[in-house]
Amino acid sequence: MYSSFVLASFASLLASIPSVFAGFSSSSQSNLAIYWGQNSYNQGTGSLAQQRLSYYCANTEFNIIPLAFLITIANPSLNFANAGNNCTAISGSNLFYCPQLEQDIAECQSTYGKTILLSVGGSTYSEGGFSSSAAAVTAANNLWSIFGPPVSGSSSPRPFGNSVIDGFDFDFESTVSNMVPFANQLRSLMTASTSTTGKSYFLTAAPQCPYPDASDGAMLAGAVYFDAIWVQFYNNYCGLQSFTVGSSTQNNFNYATWDNWAKTVSLNPNVKIMLGIPGNTGAAGSGYESGSTLASIISYCKSFSSFGGVMIWDMSQVYANSGFLSSVSSDLGLPPSGGGGGTTTTTKIATPTTLTTVTKTTASPTTTPTGSGTVAQWGQCGGIGYTGPTVCQSPYTCVANSQWWSQCE
Questions:
Q1: In the predicted model, is pLDDT for residue 396 greater than 90?
Q2: Largest CA distance in the chain
Q3: What range does the domain containing 303 cover?
Q4: Count of domains observed in the chain
Q5: In this structure, what DSSP letter does residue 241 have?
Q6: Distance between CA 266 and CA 247 in Å, rounded?
Q7: DSSP 208
Q8: Signal peptide position in this chain (predicted)?
Q9: 114 is a domain residue
Q10: Which residues are catalytic?
């Protein structure tokens, strides 16, 4: 028999899950996508090297993770930088099977509500698209058999095993041909699967900020139904650095142009445009901004009804840039996360019918501490609104149990 306190606490925990762990929302201005897979901070070992996907998913400050990249389409191949070290080649294909990713994708989706996309392209993509519409449709069918729901008896290679992504992202950096039939066939396959299973799928793109985009122009010309696009406002004259703080009208910074595209050209009248930004000073060439300037840019973009949030390149850069993610999350109006990418431990809590696994992450202070000294075992050391000491007495570590409460264990 469980006490009324335990039952009430469990009910409260369940009630909080939808608001804390939620994937992409077409009605929100607070979506936050961060690319994972390229280890662009370029650390081979240590805490700043790219970690496995599940390491990041407990952090509630972002809700979308595009996996970067599927670097060839005709004969599909993946490149996930150091994460590929945990994969093994699949005979008869250019793909590899990644048991960690099979586990992590499922965990990130079911436990943490993350939307997991597969990003197609990247800077090294050089196939140029397809020679014909028929070839494009064939390629889309092939990708769906590889990354969509598994089909009994199929011989298609499955890099993610039985895990199924939530859709595709297009990041083409050069001119491509016959992408409209490719994208529309993927959309058709995803829609058909949704009608059968009820699972939602999404299609996104990452154009450069100059309009119209040289790579994605044909798809964006009212030909493909996108759920969201995250415009890369960096490495171009129209990037973040061209924003004029305090001005209600902008010249080179052209978010207004993309808003007009959303309202007058996009096949999806409710498409969301997300502000694409670098996650660190050297993350993506020119255009990095932070602090009050970035806050002003986000505030300006929020004034447009098409605004859907922020996209950041990339996870390794963000986690090497202390405080940046929390700042962006705060600018979007999101609560601080209980997770920040520290050491993860697992414990079990009793529920009326089963044992539920709760992942807890080494906490960082969510407010500026005003207290001094150290905290004894089981004492509070962090959480929203907490202003006391954050250092635990040896040998204990400050562990986040929720965004509201961290304690020394």
A1: no
A2: 69
A3: 22-331
A4: 2
A5: G
A6: 27
A7: B
A8: 1-22
A9: yes
A10: 173
